[in-house]
Amino acid sequence: MRNKLTAIAIKKAPDGKLGDGGGLSLIKSGSAGKWVYRYTHLGRRRDMGLGSWPDLPLAEARRQRDHWASVVSAGSDPIAAREAERAAQKAEQDRADPTFADMVQIVFEAKQAGLRGGGTRGRWLSPLEHHVIPKIGRKRMSEITRGDVYDAIKPIWRDKHPTAMKAVQRTRIVFTEARYMGIDCDPFTVDAANRMLGEVRHQTKHIAATPWQDIPALWDRLNPESAAGLCLRWMMLTLVRFDGCRAARVSEVDGDIWIVPADRVKGREGKAREFRVPLSGPALEIVEEARAAGHDLLFAGHRGQPITSRAAEKHLDRLGEPGRPHGFRTSFRTWVQDTDACPWEVSETILNHSIGSTVERSYARSDLLERRRPVMEAWAGHIVGGERGVVDLDSMRN
C-alpha cells in the first residue's frame, strides 16, 4: 500500500476527493474535510467515516485505517465492530456514572417493594418526573451541580412548596443511594441547592371539612341512589379513608364488623394491617340492601368498577358543599372534642391512627373494638337523627 497524501499537499489541494491509498480518502471542502475508509466485507463495499479534518490529522487517519483494515482481514465488519465497542463503552459508563434519570429508576426499583401499590399510590416518582428529570435527567450523576438542582426546583419552590420539598427530598435520596453504590456524586450537592433556594413561609392548607353540626343536613342531601352519594354516606358512618371505602364489599363484612383489607389501609408496604370497623345500624342497612340485591361491591361506578375519588368530589360539588370526603374524619374528631364523646385513644383508634411509640404499640395491641362500638353508634345517631350523641364515659371505661 502506497500513501499518496502529505499534510502540505492536502492544504494546497482543491476541493474534492483526495485518495491516500488502502481505501483511505479525504472529502475536502474549503478548509475542512471528512476522512472516509472504504472496505469490502462479505462482498459488500462500505464507507466508514473516521472523523473530520483538520481535527483528525493525516497520521491519525492512517493509523485508524490500518487498524480497521486488520479487522477486515480478521473477517469482521469494522462498522459493526465499532458500534459494539461504543455500546460496551456506554454500558460501562452507564454502570459507573449513570444519568440522573437512570439512577432514579434504579433507586425506585430498589424501594418499590416497600411502597404501597408499588409506589403508585403515593406517587413517589411524580415530583421527580414532572420537575427534576426534565431539567437534569440526561446529565450524568458526576456532572450534576448544585446550580443544576437549584434551577430544576426554583420554578416551583414558592408556588408549589410541598411538591418542591418532596422533589428535593427524593433527589437527595437518589444522590445518597448513588453514593453508596460508589458513584461519583455527593448528597451535599442537593443540600447546597436547598440552602440556595432560601426560606419559604408556607402555610399548610388543611382539607376542607364540613362542620360536625352540619353533617346531618349533608347526610340528607346526599343521593343514596348514586354510588358516589352512598359511598359518601358510608365514609361518614365508618370514618375510613376513601381508598378503603371505594372498594368495600359485602364479603368483607362479618356480622357487624367490616374488615378492611391491609392493601386498602394507609401505611408502608408490609407494615399496614387489616382494620376492623364496628358497623352502626345505618351502616349495616347499607350492607343488607346490597346483599339483598345480590351485589358484592357496595359502590360500583363506571363499568362495575369501584368509584373514583373525583366522582365523590363531584357529587359534593353539585351540592355546593365545600367540605371534602376526607374531611369527614375531621368532622368526627371535632365532634369528639366539642362533646367529650369518648377518650382520646378511642377516637384515634377509630381513625386508625398510630398511638404511642413503637415500643408502646408492641405491648398495647388491642384495637379497642368493644370501646369503639358505642362511639360509632352515637356518631351514627348524630348523623342520621341529628342527636348530639354524648357517650357515658364511665360505661366505656368499664
CATH architecture of the largest domain: Orthogonal Bundle
CATH class of the largest domain: Mainly Alpha
Q: Helicity, in percent?
A: 40-55%
* Structural class by secondary-structure content: alpha+beta
How do the strands line up in the largest sheet? 1-2-3-4
Strand % is 5-15%
What is the helix/strand order? HEEEEHHHHHHHHHHEEEHHHHHHH
Number of domains: 3
Number of strands: 7
Distance between the termini: 105 Å
Largest sheet: 4 strands, antiparallel
Low-confidence stretches: 387-398
- Cα-based radius of gyration, to the nearest Å: 34 Å
Please describe what this structure looks like.
This protein has 398 residues and is α+β, with helices and mostly antiparallel strands. The chain has 3 domains: 7-93, Integrase, DNA-binding domain (Double Stranded RNA Binding Domain, 2-Layer Sandwich); 100-197, Orthogonal Bundle (DNA polymerase, domain 1), CATH 1.10.150; 212-397, hpI Integrase, Chain A (Orthogonal Bundle), CATH 1.10.443. It has 18 helices and 7 strands. The chain has helices at residues 7-12, 58-73, 78-96, 100-111, 126-136, 146-153, 161-180, 188-197, 215-221, 227-238, 242-246, 281-292, 309-318, 327-339, 344-350, 358-363, 369-385, 393-397, and strands at 16-21, 24-29, 32-41, 44-53, 253-254, 257-260, 275-278. The strands form 2 sheets. A 4-stranded antiparallel sheet has the order 1-2-3-4. It has a 3-stranded antiparallel sheet with strand order 5-6-7. Helix 6 (146-153) crosses helix 8 (188-197), helix 9 packs across helix 17 and helix 10 packs across helix 13 (309-318). The N and C termini lie far apart (105 Å). The model is unreliable at 387-398 (pLDDT under 50).
